[in-house]
Amino acid sequence: MLHAPHSLAVQSYAPKDMRGGGTVNVDGFGIGWFADDGYPTRYRRVGPIWTDPALERLLHPVRSGAFLGAVRSGTVGMPVTEGACAPFADDDWLFSHNGVVLGWPESVAGLAEELPVVDLLRLDAPTDSALLWAWLRHALRGGAHPVDTVTELVRRVAATARGARLNLLLVGRTVLVATAWSHSLWVRSPGAGVLVASEPCDEEPGWRPVPDGGLLVAHTTDDGASTTYEVGKIAQPEERSQV
After folding, report:
1. Largest CA distance in the chain
2. Is-contact 55 43, C-beta < 8 A?
3. What DSSP string runs through 74-114?
4. Count of CB atoms within 10 A of residue 181's CB?
5. How far is the C-alpha of 138 from the C-alpha of 131, rounded, in Å?
6. Cβ–Cβ contacts within 10 Å for residue 109, how many?
7. What is the β-pairing status of strands 165-171 and 67-71?
8. What region holds the Glutamine amidotransferase type-2 domain (predicted)?
9. Which fold would CATH assign to domain 8-242?
């Protein structure tokens, strides 16, 4: 995340493919991982990732089977706070959203109406990403399947917020679900693991673009010895007007 040629730190000030979603990612960052006890741990801060002198020392001893890192380019009108930075988390999941929900908040008011009032009062921040996470978390706690739930969320938001960019990433202990919806997404499988990134972090062979409208699902064995993934689709870009 910090030392690759095109690491997360580099992508914060020199991203290559923002798809019109800004020019830099300097409004905050976060790193999450599953600790030895099996529960997610995260570190989030406001400001550019490269300005944090503690981050490298913090991450150096960490060993985990799953990491999620994100840098933020805040949307106009949304707050620049630690709570607005991914990853969002509960006892079982880490989540990030790369993109923007157009027409916020009216376009997704229907999603908000389905949530318990307490969940709305406890939003990490009054942002589109935080609401998407709250809806997803509520569904997962109710027993919904992670792949089906992520897919449903993308379809519903795309239908009411036309032109939204919805790269969602949901990471559990042994499963990863990612969507490519009007934003760049790449995958590489080095050895027994899987790397998923908005932009390739190095020049190593094997990086594959996830097609626009694509759904990536990865599964890891319980002992972490191997990870496999497959790429399907949510909808083709030309089908979106009918989603």
Report:
1. 49
2. yes
3. PPTTS--SGGGSSPEE-SS-EEEEEEE-TTTTGGGHHHHHT
4. 24
5. 11
6. 12
7. unpaired
8. 1-243
9. Glutamine Phosphoribosylpyrophosphate, subunit 1, domain 1 (3.60.20)
- Number of neighbours of residue 113 by Cβ within 10 angstroms: 8
DSSP assignment letter at 51:
G
Can you give the pLDDT at residue 222?
Answer: 72
Integer Cα distance of 17 and 10 in angstroms: 13
Strand order in the sheet with 227-233: 88-89, 94-100, 165-171, 175-180, 214-220, 227-233
The residue to which tokens 């988390």 are assigned: 89
234 secondary structure, DSSP code: S
DSSP letter assigned to residue 21: S
Q: What is the pTM of this model?
A: 0.94
- pLDDT tens for 27-65 read 999 999 999 899 999 999 999 999 999 999 999 999 999
Position 91 pLDDT exceeds 90: yes
Q: Specify whether the CB–CB gap between 57 and 63 falls below 8 A.
A: no
Predicted local confidence at residue 20, as pLDDT: 74
Other C-beta atoms within 10 Å of 51: how many? 12
pLDDT at 238: 46
Contacts 24+ apart (CB under 8 A), 73-79: 73/18, 73/21, 73/22, 73/23, 73/24, 73/25, 73/26, 73/27, 74/27, 74/28, 75/100, 75/104, 75/127, 75/128, 77/104, 78/104, 78/125, 78/126, 78/127, 78/128, 79/125, 79/126, 79/127
Q: What is the pLDDT of residues 154-179, one digit of tens each?
A: 999 999 999 999 999 999 999 999 99
